[in-house]
Amino acid sequence: MGNQSPEPIVQPDSDRLKSLRIPLRIDGQIIGLIIFLAVIMIVMSFASEHFLTYINLLNILQQAAFVMILAFGMTFVLSTGGIDLSVGSIVGISGGMTAWLLYHDVNMVMAVIGGMIVGTAVGIVNGLVITKLGISPFIATLAMMIIARGVLYVWTGAIPIREYMSSSFTFLGQGRILNIQFPVIVAALLLLILLFVYRRMRFGRHVLALGSSEEAVRISGIKVDRLRIKVYALSGLIAAIAGILLASRLTTVHPEMGKNYELEAIAAAIIGGTSLAGGKGSLVGTALGAIILFMIKNAMNLLNVHPYWETIVVGVIILVAVTVNIWGGSARIRLGSRKALKEVKQS
């Protein structure tokens, strides 16, 4: 009797199915963003007869797609508790590399790969500087933002790169499938892929864990420096994709291309519910945040509001989103503390 090994516990089939099932619970913040979008659309439908037209809505998605893609990478970075201010410059230098290669008659596929390699390399350098030199993500990526932009200016001589377009490359930024712009389709595909990585793969779980408690991640045996470098490399790669699509869309790569895009990417991620403190993020929320951002810009344009006011409005939106984020986090902490205290008293 004493030598008998315990029988293995067999998980019932129903329990296995439950463990594999994707939860259908929708985050309350996502619902709030959807309601906010609906309110904007309802109000603007009365304010302008052109707002709810099929062409205008597609135009909003087209404009939002580039920042949306950029913000996906930013969501990963912010989830670790870091920040990447260099993504706007990566957009410019990666798009510039692709355009330069195409101008010199390099095969389009190789030119696109070249641009992606440049973006990834810049991201890796960011990660190495942060992890090996111990420089804060803000300072490290701010420096890289300036360096990469300066390299683009020196490289181009402050002269825009032109005459690099081909029919196949034109499709990347201007083509349509089922009358939907290709950049919008790329953004949707990236959302699905990255959502799976973020929520279902070990890498995504480690990213969220790193933002919640770096010490706990180290104790668990995860190589924190390597993980952080991977996150910044991913951010650089995603920024490069946005830059290549934008180079195709604009048909000209100006040294200023992508400037201030990092601010809009951060804004989209924060509006979508990603915490600046790390440990919390939502790619779906980020996508909605980008759409909200450009829907408001589009609404102001239709109402003939001066473009300078857009900057003020975006700043106010960021301030409100961060405030709501902080208050929401504080409320959850207080609720958790009360629940824990109640359980202690009951015990």
TrEMBL record:
Membrane topology: Multi-pass membrane protein
InterPro entries in the cross-refs: ABC_transp_permease
Protein name listed in UniProt: Ribose ABC transporter permease
Gene Ontology, cellular component aspect: plasma membrane
Organism in which the protein naturally occurs: Paenibacillus abyssi
Transmembrane annotation, as ranges: 30-48, 60-78, 109-131, 138-158, 178-198, 231-250, 270-296, 308-328
Subcellular location: Cell membrane
Keyword Transmembrane among UniProt keywords: yes
Gene Ontology MF: a single term: transmembrane transporter activity
Superkingdom of the organism of origin: Bacteria
Keywords noted in UniProt: Cell membrane, Membrane, Transmembrane, Transmembrane helix
Record CDD domains: TM_PBP1_transp_AraH_like
